[in-house]
Design goal:
The chain is mainly β. It has a domain at 63-134. Helices cover 0% and strands 36% of the residues. The radius of gyration is 18 Å and the shape is flat. GO terms for molecular function: RNA binding. InterPro entries: Rib_uL2_dom2, Ribosomal_uL24_KOW, Translation_prot_SH3-like_sf. Its main location: plastid.
Length: 137
């Protein structure tokens, strides 16, 4: 088992928006790659200036939402954090993943911890707690 993380908290998506990171990966020339573990995510950029274009986010931290897709479908949860550049959100108690924590010293033992992982924003819908139904604002 490989130990890959040092902290047992959810990690933010990371990527290079300057256009210098692994140019040989880009096939169309207007997307920039971002790696998190073994997965790759793309940042939308303009064709002319190669600057990052943020997605329109219908959610903000603290919104009550319902998961519409995936293993946690139907769960009502709350948004913790949003990343408009990658169209990702971190929600409380959904998208649970395992993180392997590396030992920092020789006498420590590594461990595996469950944390919330970021999910695509299109998997969520706003939830009205008064009526008990999901829907658009």
């Amino acid at each position: 088992v490989t130990m890959s993380a040092r902290v047992p908290e959810p990690q933010a998506p990371r990527g290079d928006t300057a256009g210098t990171f692994r140019k040989w990966l880009y096939t169309k020339g207007h997307q920039e790659a971002m790696f998190k573990g073994n997965s790759q995510m793309a940042v939308r950029t303009t064709k002319d200036t190669k600057k990052a274009v943020e997605w329109f986010m219908a959610f903000k931290a603290g919104d009550t939402v319902q998961v519409q897709d995936g293993a946690d479908k139907g769960k009502v949860t709350q948004i913790i954090k949003v990343w408009p550049r990658w169209n990702k959100v971190l929600a409380m108690g959904v998208g649970i993943r395992w993180i392997n924590i590396r030992p920092e010293r020789e006498d420590e033992v590594g461990q595996r911890v469950q944390v919330e992982g970021y999910m695509d924003a299109s998997w969520f819908k706003h939830y009205d707690e008064a009526e008990g139904v999901p829907g658009n604002l």
